[in-house]
Amino acid sequence: AFALEFCTRHGVALPAAQRLRLVIEELFTNSIRHGYRGECDAPIRIALAMNESRVTVQYEDSACSPLQATNTVKRVLEQFKPHIVVGEECSDASLAIAPILEQAKVPMLNAGSATNQLTESGYKYVFRVNAPAAQFALALLDGALAAGKPRTVAFIYESTDFGNSVSAAGKAYAQTKGLQVVADEAYQKGAADYRS
After folding, report:
1. What pTM did the predictor assign?
2. Which residue of 46, 151, 157, 177 could cross-link 163, Cys pair, CB 3.0 to 4.6 Å?
């Protein structure tokens, strides 16, 4: 819908606008279906710009991949020379692009990555506006403690910077609350699902 609205605002003929909408829908659908295998919580960015009589589409999908995020940020820095970068949303990818942005002296406003390492690394150009991973862990355990009197806790998490940061903070906090950690199980991102 946003593509058609954009085209209407900029006087693009309806047949061309409908073709553009189809291209964007196909890009998005293919990213979800083939890149994420149907499950996506990573950001996909689509930007439209009008240059004279031509619509330019910028489609960015790092798939939370540090390599893809690194390649994208290098290209964006060179091509667009932004004064600020908003994103990356995933901790692994954010950690990969932070040193690049630091070297370029371009601030990164980060609203999604929660790994503690992102702000504990001493970067001067990284600004996080969401809670760090340690706060996630404290809130989860405080909620569990408020709901009852658990004596044990099991940590099951994705082995990513985010999952590792939350579980490490959670295990430390659990000890201060007298909870016994009975399991500490990390699984690999993208691991097969063997539910019956």
Report:
1. 0.65
2. 157
